[in-house]
Amino acid sequence: MVKNAVLIVIAGFAISISVSAVGSLTTPTSGYDAKKAEETFTRYCTGCHNAERSLRTLKGEANWKYAIERMAFQYKLLFGEPIPQQAQRVILEYLIQNAGKE
User: What is the pTM of this model?
Assistant: First the structure.
């Protein structure tokens, strides 16, 4: 029980640190490759939930940045490697371009 509480506190602290880095993600303005973006999104985002879950959600850029930072932290915990910053930028652009559109 104490171990779980400690893990929750550590995870919360790490997420708060991660969220402070949200400003480091910037939306790419040129060179967007839709196929590469979809592949990157699929590689990093569908290990825990299906693509439809994310793509049916409409969020603004700041909220997507926050979500990507949280998921990047979870990804590292689960798979032992970080999502590279460049991949995070590509995922951000992909979600801005494709999410919430029916």
Answer: 0.70
